[in-house]
Amino acid sequence: MNIFDYFFEDKQHLEKDFVLGPKETISFKELYTNSIQFAAYLREHIGTDKNIILICPNSVFFITAYLGILKSENICIPLNYAIEQGNLDYIVKTTDSPIVIAAKSLSSKLTFKKSVRIIKEDVLTKTADFKIGTIFNFNFDPNKIGEIIFTSGSTGKPKGVMISHKNIMANTDSIIQYLKLTSDDIVGVVLPFFYCYGLSLMHTHLKVGGSIVLNNTFIFLGSVIDDLKKYKCTGFAGVPSHFQILLKKSLSFKTSEFPDLRYVTQAGGKLHSIFIKEFIDAFPRIDFFVMYGQTEATARLSYLPPKLLKDKIQSIGKAIPGVSLKVMNNEGKIAKTNEEGELLAKGDNIMLGYYKDEESTLKTIKNGWLHTGDIAKVDADGFIYIVARKKEIIKVGGKRVSPKEIEEVILSLPEVVDCTVSGIPDEILGEAIKVVITTQNKVDQKLMKDKVLNTCAKKLSMFKIPQKFVFDTSIKLNATGKKIVNP
């Protein structure tokens, strides 16, 4: 089955609005018609099995083009609308993409080779009366690639994660099941759709017949809070920085009432316990889902049920339905209780591999198991705890240090909004510990440094105490909402 047909299985005539918001709306019926007309247009003018790049902020146009590409049996490559020219050139060349579909406001900022055809969003006016004479393949192979999502690795060139139609269906079904989503659900969307977490919101709510509220201006916290209330959102999804900013930078968030908000989800990195506790203390009746995932797993791998949050607050929970997780030690055996090792995953949501990168694929997927690159441990009850990324582990004088442990201690100080611990080269120790600290307001840096050092000295071993300090008053975010660490 094509993922398009899976989404619209019984919703192609639904008059209900799928997209809500102050700027634009569209019903399921209109979205189905517009998307399938666009698919027919692509089939006639471009053909099938082409890599089609889509560069556009969250909008009705993005959703229409995305669904149309998938239905047309082409492959969608959604890219960051703030992409650098160098990365764009690399991706266009790597994917041999003959087509770029771009928002009008963005296409003028980027340059393309003459061989690349640019389709701007006003194409929808041309396809509105397009007669659907195309015969679509209803015996479609769901194992075909549906999309390639490029990961923004911290080093080297980005990798293209190949996601099949089957991968999307499997992960969508699992998320719907554990979040108990229905047609009554409305989610506030601040996550971009070129990011797998953002796409999962679109996928799940399309499938259940729910609705989404688009907000591309998270920086204006008041608009996010207003949208949650005005459109009676039952759900909200964010990465750690979204919750940190709402809790620490908004004057009204914690005192606001959200009578319709049933749950929130958090993924895209670890949100430290102090912020989770602050949220659930402020909103005890709202379910808080801690989740874990990777682009290589389409989106989601595990979740922690809200009722267990207080008892297992550091945990990422257990595997979502349809997924198996295990921790393997250095000897290649299943780790014992609380023994550290690499987290491995298996399921129908695991990617096909990295595009044109067989070497990395073979290193990442072995015997059907995805090697996540995360160091984890499992407690006596079977709950999983992420210790650190393999690349994040700092070795100070030969001793292994997890940045997360130090960050938890520093974040206990009321002045601290955020902090990031990393390793820097050191001639004597091999690596020394650096911390970037974001505070509420400008502070006396010497006094703040002394306070941090005193707090760390009370709670950490001497070799875990930071040596270098950097202070800031704002969290620098990338386009997905994840923080950018100062050099």
From TrEMBL:
Task: Specify whether Ligase is a keyword of the entry.
Answer: yes
The UniProt record lists the AMP-binding enzyme C-terminal domain at 405-482
Q: Pfam families, from UniProt? A: AMP-binding (PF00501), AMP-binding_C (PF13193)
Gene Ontology terms, MF aspect: medium-chain fatty acid-CoA ligase activity
Keyword check for Transmembrane helix? no
Keywords, sorted A to Z: Ligase
Which biological process annotations from GO are given for this protein?
A: fatty acid metabolic process
Gene3D superfamilies for the chain: 3.30.300.30, N-terminal domain of ligase-like
Residue intervals of the AMP-dependent synthetase/ligase domain? 12-355
PANTHER family from the xrefs?
ACYL-COA SYNTHETASE, MEDIUM-CHAIN ACYL-COA LIGASE ACSF2, MITOCHONDRIAL
Family designation: Belongs to the ATP-dependent AMP-binding enzyme family.
User: Know the name of this protein?
Assistant: AMP-binding protein
Q: What is the species of this protein?
A: Maribacter polysiphoniae
Q: What is the lineage of its organism?
A: Bacteria, Pseudomonadati, Bacteroidota, Flavobacteriia, Flavobacteriales
